[in-house]
Amino acid sequence: MKEIKFSVKIRATRLVEKLVPEEFVRFCHSADTMESGKSTREKEWTGGRESYFISEIDGITTLLVNTEVPLEQEKLFNIRLPKALERIKYLAENF
Length: 95
Known about the structure:
Layout lengths: L1 E5 L4 E10 L3 E11 L4 E2 L1 H4 L3 E9 L2 E9 L5 H21 L1
Antiparallel strand pairs: 1-2, 2-3, 3-4, 3-5, 5-6
């Protein structure tokens, strides 16, 4: 599996669980560390999943997202995911 680390305030490590180039990717959360890796909050994120499906029909691109996050993180994810998707849309339409 390919490991991807996202560098944000909360350090997150995800594994690419499945990849179909230009169609689908599923990430499995493997760790969530804070304070530059000095402490680990394994139980809060480990095991969560994110799946992204992309398709194009008649010139319209659609991105579908499915998330499976621990209940404790659901509220935070519901706040941050829409912001991230807006950023993806902006980048896709402007670059």
